[in-house]
Every structure is written in structure tokens, then in C-alpha cells.
Write a structure and sequence with these properties.
With 326 residues, this protein is α+β, with helices and mostly antiparallel strands. Helix content is 15%, strand content 32%. It is globular and about 75 Å long.
Length: 326
Amino acid sequence: MCTSIQLKHGDTYFGRNLDLEYHFGERVVITPRDYSFTFRKNDAVYKNHLAMIGMATVVDDYPLYAEAANEKGVYVAGLYFPGNAWYTDEIKPDKDNITPFELIPWLLSYSSSLSDVKELLSRINLVNIPFSEKMPLAGLHWHIADKESSMVLESTKDGLRIYDDPVGVLTNNPPFDFQLQNLRQYMNLDPHQPSNTFSEKLDLSTFGVGMGAIGLPGDNSPASRFVKAAFNLNNAVCEDGEEGSVSEFFHILDSVVSVRGSVITPEGKYDITTYSSCINGDKGIYYYKTYENCRINAVDMHKEDLDSDRLMVYELDKKLDIKRAN
């Protein structure tokens, strides 16, 4: 389970909570411009592409990105979409046959905007080929954004669907069109204090702040997280400057985190927010914090040699860092 959001405040920020019951060897990874991407069913070799930064596990020197953004400020995040995601076994010679684990680098290598992304997606055939026998494909859908807007890509048995995402949020099931319709049930929510519309016969008044949003979901289900993240994101007020934007971004993600013990999987494991990320799409800075360490860490892709041909990998700082005043 995961939550991905886009926030525009001066610069544009993207990022997500990754909710999982285990770690997958995730590290911050920069893929420079001259790193060679090869594809299982596509003869093209991508070099001299756009650099990208994100969270990935690296297997056989290949970055398996959970989410990433390129140097032009295009962002792609894969979110769990069980029971609905579907990939074809058919190889189509007139299409670009791309596997789900290749999708993020394929889209980010040469896309400068969502228009470029949509052009690529018009000729994609998303094929059911895992990275290896020991690493089967996950059922995913994708939150994709640039500096102006965002969209959602879903591949189901009904075909490939692309939705504009005016909300700037994606979670998991049900499909995205349901999530948009479901927001209509919460049109009455208001960050301001409510007036008495219960009855003219009763003299009713509030007894605390925040009562205009009574009914805002607080559970960890995907539909509830979508509503809560959408409400907080679209009512958020950022302080000026980079620190203000980054701080507000993480506060929005914090409102929909999974706390250890609050979500137990059918296997009896604890589903937690293993990490939260925030990418400044204009500056190429990847901010993150982990479940174990709530301090915000940062990796700036532009402080590295982006013309290199070798991956740059940064281990996550998971040890709690406490600033002691005495």
C-alpha cells in the first residue's frame, strides 16, 4: 500500500509513502546520462539519456526504481494495484514491448513533459516478463507528473487507461476513476469552522476547532488515504522557501502513514511506511526519511557527475538521529 502526491509551491514537488511489510534493499540511486539501459523485448539501447534520481533496489547493476524523477522534472511512481493490474503475454512487433520493471527508465530517459510521456504510451505494449524467476512482477499502476500536472496509468484486462489527475494524488485499489467519483461523498468537508445547518430550532455551536472536516476518513484503506491526502494536499498552505515546501510536503504524507501494528497483513506481518520521499522536480533534490529515522535526508543529483556511465548509490540512514539540547 502506498500514497503518491504532487505539490506545486514555487517549485514542483513529487513523492510518496511506500507502505510495505518488509524492506526490499531500497537505496537512493542516481542514474547518469551515459548509463546504458537495455530492454528485454526492445532492441534499443538507451545512452545519452536524461539523468534520473529516485529510490531503487539495484540488481545486477540495474536500478529497479520504485519512483524516480528525471532532470527535466518528470516523475513516475509505481504503486501496488493488486487484483486489477494485468500485463499481456503477447509480443507485438508494431509496438514498444516494455515490461513493468522497465517502465520508469523507459519513460524518464527522454521525456521532458507529460506530452512526451503520452506520446510514448501511445505505442507501448506492457508485457508480462519478470526481472528474474526469483523476482516476479508486482501488480502496479503508476502516478506520472511533470511540473504542471499529473496523470495515472493503469493496465487492466480492459486495456491501457490514462487518466488526468487534477487531485495530484494516487493510492492503490480501487481503480482511479472510482477514487475520483468517491471524492464527491466528501464535498461538504471544510477546513473552516462549520455553521449550524442541523436545525433552525436548535442553538448549536462548535466545541473545538477542526469540526468542519468531521467525516474525513482516518483509516489506512487506500480509498480513505486517497480522500485524506487529497483534502490535506489541496488545502495545504506552505511557508515560503524550500524548507517550508519540503516540510509541508512531508506533513501531508505523515497524515496517511502506516504505523507499526495499525495494519496487519493476512500473513500476520506489520505493514509500515518504510520510507517517505519528496523530490524537488526543479532542482533535482531527493529528500527522504525512513520509518526508523524521521530526520529528513537529502541527495542532490546535480552535485554529481551526471555525464558518468556508472550508477551512484546512497545507503539510507536508518539510525534515529536525535539532537540533544543538554
